[in-house]
Specification:
Pnp Oxidase, Chain A, 4 helices, 2 domains
Length: about 140
């Protein structure tokens, strides 16, 4: 039998906890398929004060690695530089919902030039319009 537990947070939001078993883990083929299908991940890192910073990000899965592009001045980059420990949730909400939760350490890699950054961003974003926002952020993202 499932049991419900209710919690009330300071801002009056209720969180419901269900006791139930999880579905069986995904196979390697299902994980690969999910990583090709999903477009957005939730990137979680530790803030200076110990709270968790969670942000939706576009990602690319390549050679067994999750690649996320972010400006050097972003909170994500600062948290990785300071601590390195991260969690990344990649999921598909459409039925049947499924997901992969990754715990690990992230590392920052800086492009050597504006051209290298543009090449990486183009591969990373594939069919997404690069537009003016990307050009405006280039200066913040490259050294």
């Amino acid at each position: 039998m499932k049991s419900l537990k209710y919690f009330r947070l300071k801002n009056e939001i209720e969180v419901v906890s269900l006791d139930y078993t999880q579905p069986p883990p995904l196979t390697e083929e299902e994980v690969e398929s999910l990583l090709k299908e999903a477009r957005t991940a939730r990137f979680c890192s530790l803030n200076k004060d110990g709270t968790i910073h969670a942000a939706p990000v576009w990602f690319r899965h390549e050679n067994g690695q999750i690649v996320i592009i972010t400006p050097e001045a972003s909170r994500k980059a600062k948290n990785v530089k300071r601590h390195g420990k991260v969690s990344v949730l990649i999921d598909i909400e459409q039925p049947p919902p499924r997901g992969v939760l990754i715990y690990g350490r992230a590392e920052l890699r800086y492009p050597r030039s504006r051209d290298e950054y543009l090449e990486e961003a183009t591969r990373y974003m594939k069919n997404i319009c690069l537009g003016k926002r990307l050009n405006a952020r280039l200066k913040a993202c490259t050294r």
